[in-house]
Amino acid sequence: MGLPHTVETSANVKRKRVSEDSPGRTHQSQLQQRRIKLLDSRKQLPIWQRQKDIRDALRDNDVLILSGETGSGKSTQVPQFFLDQPWCGFPGKIAVTQPRRVAAISLARRVAEEMGTPLGSSSPASKVGYSVRFDESTSPSTRIKFLTEGMLLQEMLRDASLSQYKCVIVDEVHERSVNIDLILGFLKQLQTRRKDLKVVVMSATADADSLQRFFAAQLLENTRHDSKSVPNDSQTDGEAEVDADDAPWHGFDDEDQQSSSNIATCHVEGRQYPVITRYLDSPTEDTIEASLHRIFQIHCKEPTPGDLLVFMTGQEAIQSLQKLVEEYALGLTTDYPKMLVLPLFAALPQAAQQLIFQPAPRNTRKVILTTNIAETSVTVPGVRFVVDTGKAKVKQFRNRIGLDSLLVKQISRSSADQRKGRAGREAAGQCYRLYTEEAYKSLDKDSTPEVLRCDLSQAVLTMKARGVGDVLRFPLLTPPPKEAMEKALLQLCELGALDEHGNISPIGRKIARLPLTPALGRVIIEAATPETDCLVEVIDIVACLSVEHIFLAIDTEEGREKASVARRQLLRRQGDHLTYLAAVQAYAAEQSDRRRWADDHMISHRAMQSVMDVRQQLTAQCRQAKLFTTQEAHPATDEATQERIVKCFLRGFSSNVARACPDGSYKTFAGNQTVAIHPSSVLFGRKVEAIIYNQFVYTNKAYARDVSVVQLRWLEEALDGMA
Ligand SMILES: Nc1ncnc2c1ncn2[C@@H]1O[C@H](COP(=O)(O)OP(=O)(O)OP(=O)(O)O)[C@@H](O)[C@H]1O
């Protein structure tokens, strides 16, 4: 007679336990097998031979400036070299900053694999994690954390001393974004009061001499310190108190070159695989046509596997080229491999960005069309060919209109070298430059630091929120013109982020905690006031402004007519902001098939998924900051609410207003510049009293994007409110 079901023999229990444990154990052993396999390739990297020098250099010094060719192994290996160092202690963490989230996430994934540990929050035992805007994936055991520069600056708001880190590695320092320059300044200050903090600065192409001078120069002892502004760990609601342990802030004196830190430099020679560079014989104007030609030439001539990475200027160029490549690929005979075209740009949702890392299916070549976001730190497995158009969209401050705008510009030689470096990472590669060799030689050596070409209001607010009293004396690697700093201070005063003494206000502190520009942050704060009370709606609109365009681009007259019928229910005569709101509300209300809803309305489903993501994150952040007065959404048809919503944008963007002229054009109030409504706007072709816009873009002429109608009296009211 058998045993009743309820009684379990010890053998049964044991068998059951083994089978329950085995998935975890199998996973563990898979991780270890992968680690051992990768160890062989790590040992081939040029940097592997130099690990003792690198360890010794940082053991004996506070700062290490490390240069080495692209692909030599800096980003993946250097953090691992330090983990077992006595100065790093346990559980001392290492932060590694990256300019972009795609690099932060892919590096974290790779280093986790190399260490044989699960990634991020997937297991409490994971030793490698990442943190990017709207996505943090770490565990209690995280030792190495890859994070975007913006996220490190956010962490400094919660913990000015970065006390959880023993070492901060600033990677790709040659990019010289404002955030990198701010981080270098803060770290330099921090090392005066945290003697145990190590700093590593890395790049393939950085100017090591100027970095060395920067870290060697003494900080001034007597700079005014805005004591009220120093945040501390216990600060939760924006009303900061002085952290007693915080030594006064020190300014930076260019004249004084005495060393305050011990600094080591190290250069790693060599790269793993060669990359052949090819140029055009004569220049080309049409980069889309030239890229198309080159892509098919490579595809038809070169064997697979061998994926292609093509550097373009921006989302629109990428989408046009994608369409063309896909159309032409249909005409290829079956003698050729298939093509899988994948776009990559900053506004793409993370899941779509990560598709580029998946291996191409059999007999298929991946063709990745990217902006400069894949220029540094990224290894895309399978890529053997790089096509470089030599151009990028860059933010440039336009003095006449007092605004940042996006311009297409030639890249620098150092960017071109980084792009080339994306080939030849797993095997020998080729880089096709769609410009002549003479043009390459005439490029600027390095990109102009962002502090010299951008609106500095965010940078100044970042400093103020982290306790810098006199921002003009903050240690910046390249000091911007004094007027640019003053202009930023003025703008922040207008937004109410600084008080009349230049100290950060409670509003400024709230704005600094939001992952948005000061102007957009101000819009959110305005929407949260009890009188305005439209935060729910404004979050929806801000989410749309933070992702790729939600309306699919249409380039034919017929298509435009079709779109206006399909989107009729959503279009709002008041402009794009309320149209975006209508779209988000309708999409959110759709419960059965959102993809179909998006197709029916000629809206990008992918963009709407991102909107929903950002919306959720921003809502959570606003809730955390106690900004909600009510939780209720107002009906979008309520006219009073609609007016209040547009007025919120006016509070943040009062300088982005243009009035109609008799000849039908619009002229900006600031700078009296002619601006046209962008064809993508619902207001395109309409004439209204005045407009407000969120973006100023310059292609063949100056365009306002994301536009709404405003009444001039609202502007007067807004200006009165600011006075
Ligand atoms: N995700 C990955 N998949 C496959 N190989 C990878 C991956 N990440 C890194 N590698 C390998 O490790 C090498 C070193 O990469 P790493 O990013 O550390 O170099 P780097 O010196 O920091 O380069 P860069 O200056 O271009 O950022 C690559 O050339 C590649 O061979």
From TrEMBL:
Q: Which Gene3D superfamilies match?
A: 1.20.120.1080, P-loop containing nucleotide triphosphate hydrolases
What Enzyme Commission number(s) apply to this enzyme?
3.6.4.13
Feature: compositional bias, Acidic residues: 236-246
* UniProt-listed SMART domains: DEXDc, HA2, HELICc
Where do the Helicase ATP-binding domain residues begin and end?
Answer: 55-224
Which residue intervals define the domain Helicase C-terminal in the entry? 291-467
- Give the record's GO CC terms: nucleolus
- BP-aspect Gene Ontology terms: positive regulation of transcription by RNA polymerase I
Q: Show the InterPro entries listed in the entry.
A: DEAD-box_helicase_OB_fold, DEAD/DEAH_box_helicase_dom, HA2_WH, Helicase-assoc_dom, Helicase_ATP-bd, Helicase_C-like, P-loop_NTPase
List the PANTHER family: ATP-DEPENDENT RNA HELICASE, ATP-DEPENDENT RNA HELICASE DHX33
| Protein name, as recorded | RNA helicase
Encoding gene (name): prh1_1
